[in-house]
Amino acid sequence: MKSNNITYLLSLVPGKQSLGTYRFLPIFFCIGGVMEWIMINARIGKETFYDVYRRKQSEREYEKKIADGLIVLNEPSSK
Question: What transmembrane ranges does the database entry give (predicted)?
C-alpha cells in the first residue's frame, strides 16, 4: 500500500520521459538553498549556525597553537 502511494507521488513530478530520475534535482537544489538560508539567517538565541562554526573553528586553532607551543600561557607567579 505504501509503495503504491509513493510511486503515485513520484509519478506526479513532470519530466519522466526526458529527464528520468534527474527530474528531482531542482527539488533538492531548492531544499538545499532553503537550508543554507536558514543556517545563515535564522537565529537561535543570539547566534546563527555560522557564528557557532566560526567560534568553534577559532577555538580549535587557538588550542592547536597552544599544543604546538606557538602560544605560551602566562601562569600567575606565586608570592
Answer: 20-40
pLDDT of 78 reads: 62
In a domain, 6, yes or no: no
What distance lies between CA 58 and its chain's CA centroid?
Answer: 18
Cβ neighbours around 58 below 10 Å, total: 10
Domain count, the chain: 1
Better pLDDT: 22 or 75: 22
Cα separation, 54 vs 48, in Å, equals 10
Q: Which three cell numbers stand for residue 61?
A: 586553532
What's the CA gap between 46 and 48, in Å, rounded? 7
What's the whole-model pTM score?
0.59
